[in-house]
Structures are given as C-alpha cells and as structure tokens.
Amino acid sequence: MLRLTELRLPLDHPPEELRQAICDRLGIGAEELEQFNVFKRGHDARRRSAIWFVYTVDCAVRDEAGVLARYRAEHPGNSHVQPAPDMAWHNPISNGAVLAATPGYKRPIVIGAGPCGFMAALILARMGLRPLLLERGKIVRERTVDTFALWRRAILTPESNVQFGEGGAGTFSDGKLYSQVRDPRFLGRKVLEEFVKAGAPEDILYLAHPHIGTFRLVSMVEHIRHEVEQAGGDYRFEARVDDLLLNPATRKVEGVRLATGEVIEADHVVLAVGHSARDTFAMLQKQGVDMQAKPFSMGVRIEHPQSVIDVAQFGPSAGNDLLGAAEYRLVHHAANGRGVYSFCMCPGGTVVAATSEEGQVVTNGMSQYSRAERNANSGIVVELRPGEDYPDDPLAGMAFQRHWERQAFLAGGGDYRAPAQRVGDFLAGRPSTVLGDVVPSYKPGVTPTDLSTCLPDFVVEALREALPRFERKLRGFTMEDAVMTGVETRTSSPIRIPRGESGQSVNTPGLYPAGEGAGYAGGILSAAMDGIRMAEAVAQDMAGLPVTL
Ligand code: FAD
C-alpha cells in the first residue's frame, strides 16, 4: 500500500475526482489504481471563500515499487507519497491463556471503567489474562438515570454521575476522539477500530476531528463490556476500591480492599480512576504512593449560537452539511503571564452539570452525534500553577478545585443551578440580572450573577483580556448576550502519579497508574491508548518479559 498525503480538493468536489487526483499524483492510469481508502479527511478553511478538503489516502497500485521509485525520482525531497505504515496492533505475549491456567494464578485488577480502564481490560482479556475490572459506579443504563436526575431534578448521586460509572467521565460528552499525543505505534488507530467494532460510527476512522456523541457512547461501552466478558474478563459494579494492600517490607501490591471490606488479592493493579476520584487520591497519599501536584486549568463554559460560530469560521459555506457544525480552538497569553485557551469545545451541544460531590457546581460540555443543538459551547480556561496559586502539595489542587466549586454552588443559589453571566456584563464588570437572546443550555438551570465571585482574581483578569482578543479571531465571540457559566474546574487531573519504565508506580511495585487521573492522558482517546500501554506492561511483567512501553 502507498500513503498519499495533502491531496487537496474543493469542498464540493464530485466523489470521482478523488480517484482522479490519486492517479494524477502518482502519474498512473486509472487501470493501475487497484483500490484506495481514505485514511484521514480534514478541511482547510483559512480562506473562507475557498474551503478545501485535505485527504490522506492509502492505495494499492499495480507495481507499487516501480510507482514509488518513479515518484521519488520525479519529486526529489517530496514526502507526500510513502509506503503506508503497518498500523496493526501486535500482542506482546503469546502464552496468556497458559499463564491464566497456572495453579495459584492471580488475575490482574483494573480499577475504573473509563476509557483507560475498559481498554486495559479489553486488551488483557484478549491476551487471555482474565482481568477483573472494579468500578465504583453503576452499569451505564442505570448510571444514565442517576445522571439525568441531577440535570432534571437537581438530585445528585455521589457514586453515580457524570464522572463515575461505566464508561467513565467521557460517557456523557461530545465524544471527541483526537489527541495531540505522539503515537508512533498507532495505538490511537487500534482504539478507533475497537470503538467502531463496538458500534461507533465508521467515519471516526477517517475524519481528522472525529466525534461519537453521547448516545452512541452509551451503547459502545456496553458492547465493549460484552467483549471483555466473552474473552474471559469480568466487571463488578458498585465495587469501590477503598484501600490497597501492600507488603509491609517491599511495598509490593498484594491486593485491594473494597468499600464493603472484601479483600481481593492481586499482584498487578491498573489504577485508572480518572481525575475526580478525590477520596481515592487521599487514600493513595495515606498509603505513601508517590504523587506530585500537577498544573491544571480553570475557568468557565461559554455559549454562542452555533450559527454565529459557523459564519465566523466558514463564511459563505456556513451550514454546508459536508462541513457540519464549526469548531474553534483559541489561545491567548495574558499580560499576567497566564495562558488562556478554549477547552473541550462542543459544537451544537449543551453545557452539563458535571459535579461528583454534593454542594458543588462544575460545568462541562456534551453533544449528540448530529451536533444539532442551537448553541456552541466551550470551556475558556486559565492555567493554574501549583506552588503559586495553592501549596505545592499533591492534594492541594483538589482542595483548590473544591473551594471554587463550592463558591459556584453558592453563587448559583445553593440548589445545583450554575452561576451565569452575559459576556457584555462580564467585560463591563457588572453582574447580570437577566440573560438575553442566547438561552443557556445548562440543566437544572442558571442564576444570572457576577462570575467574579467564584473565580480567582487572576483568572477573571486573564479572561477579561482574552475574550476581546478571541473576538479578533472569531467575529461574534464577545457578543453581548453570549453566556458564560461557571465553574469549569475538572479540566485535567490536579495530580500526577509517576511511573517508571516498567509502567509501575516509582515506589509501589505492582501498581500501574494510568489514564487521566494519574496524569498520563487528557481525553478519551489518549486515556484509552494509555490503557492499552498499561495492559501490555502488565502482560509482559506476568510473562517475565522486558517491558516495552
Ligand atoms: P475516567 O473516564 O474518569 O474513568 C475513571 C473511572 O474510575 C470512573 O468510571 C470512576 O467511577 C472509576 N473510579 C474512580 N475511583 C474508583 C475507585 N476507588 N474504585 C473503583 N472505581 C473507581 N474527552 C475527550 O477526549 N473528548 C470529549 O469530547 C470529552 N468530553 C467530556 C465531557 C464531559 C462532560 C466530561 C466530564 C469529560 C469529557 N472528556 C472528553 C474528558 C474524558 O472524559 C476523560 O479525559 C476520560 O474519560 C479519562 O479517562 P480515564 O479512563 O482516565 O478516567
């Protein structure tokens, strides 16, 4: 196969033009092109009057070696035609089933059924190692009922909500599936292929910015559970891990204790608990597991009519179905030294209540696959620094989050409504008393107020400076009636649990800190990729092989 990159065609090109463009690029006749598939499709909207699709295509041609040699001779230094890389995932061990049948075999434990945990469990199960996945929350359909109870009736279930339960934090989300992380082994591709097998739309395999939407995510995580179970793994729900059992002399993991008191022995524990498992982080600190404070960000969610964003991004092509609802990505370096950036932008979506603790308000965003809701929303967040904004203690970032989430709860009225403010009022430094044409989507509702009461001063200052700069890049961004809702605090983990080259905690052998909670991922795709890596590390250790992360 050959991989062709940077094939550019106009937005409204007829489908057959792609085949012709491939032949033109390679200088071959139509009969020499045996087959092709689109590996990636993005768009270039830098000139709004002339938007282009940009393709990466894999194709099989007659006499591949000859075509490649001729292309290279005719285009020296041009790398847009290359042999397609091997993207297949290779099982690093061959004796998983034999190991699992050995008398005294201890199953690996995975804590957490988010993307990191369910992917780790899937890979361990496929390797024959019969993992046991322990999840504090409920099975996804029951969890959905609990999550909706907060949104519709202001009733929070602390163990079953947007953060906790089958599918993890990303289940009620936009399901964006792209990541900036280096991926030389194409683990991202492996994740996407597994997601498609489990019912995700096939276009996630080739769109440059794929997303699934929340509805499909729910059935996808169910399918993955069935796969894990069929391959010999098990899930247990409402099984919160409250303690680690460590060998007193070596600190080696010997098992876990559940909230019920039940003890489960294990030599290998993948810790994939996400960024909101605050009680679990406190337990890990008590157990002496090495942890560090990690920088994260906080701010607000902003909502605009999607049509305003579409026009700003696509000009005359706004509303074209081929482009879908427009996204944006904004960054500004404020004079107070803080980076301000858009985070987890959800086109055509809704702002959601994302707290997991009582008496707090946290925002985030989600959408359906169609991205057809009236508003676009995005976090607009400001960088925080441990040691400067709060003490440089591993758990201090968590306390900082809690403080501001509580302020937001109080500013919203103390009943899970969120504090909200019109952008015009925020920039003018006056509280909002009413909202305007942009109807906020946050449920169970918002209270117009002054957001500066629930944000640190330097965050307010950085936001006030950044918003007009964003207007220069995206016309309409500071429209008076755009709505800001607070507070957005769960942007990433405030903690890092360092691991060594074997994937294990640097001072607690047998513990594999993984995914977003441990500071090794920032999103669904990267968390799932990390889950594969940790499953491989566990398997290699069990098989007595050197670990290659
Ligand atoms: P999590 O998904 O947080 O999973 C951790 C799991 O561990 C949870 O199910 C939790 O219940 C369980 N757990 C915690 N403690 C224990 C314990 N002691 N015992 C047993 N179980 C435990 N990312 C994207 O890439 N794209 C998006 O569009 C996107 N949208 C988002 C929208 C929302 C509303 C939210 C909240 C997040 C969104 N994210 C998105 C972020 C994404 O969800 C996370 O990055 C990702 O889920 C992290 O995966 P994880 O497996 O590391 O942790």
Characterization of this structure:
This is FAD-dependent oxidoreductase. Residues 295-491 form the FAD-dependent protein C-terminal domain. Residues 109-136 form the FAD-binding domain. By secondary structure, this protein is of the alpha+beta class. It has three domains: 2-83, 2-Layer Sandwich (Alpha-Beta Plaits), CATH 3.30.70; 103-292 and 507-542, FAD/NAD(P)-binding domain; 295-488, no CATH class. It is 29% helix and 22% strand. A hairpin with a 6-residue loop joins strand 8 and strand 9. The radius of gyration is 25 Å and the shape is globular. The mean pLDDT is 96. Flavin-adenine dinucleotide (FAD) binds next to helix 4, strand 17 and helix 13.
Uncertain regions spanning at least 5 consecutive residues: none
Portion in beta strands: 15-25%
CATH superfamily of the largest domain: FAD/NAD(P)-binding domain
Helix content range of the residues, please?
25-40%
Secondary-structure-based class equals alpha+beta
- What are the bound molecules? flavin-adenine dinucleotide
InterPro entries: FAD-bd, FAD-binding_protein, FAD-depend_C, FAD/NAD-bd_sf
Protein name: FAD-dependent oxidoreductase
GO molecular function, one term: FAD binding
Domain FAD-binding: 109-136
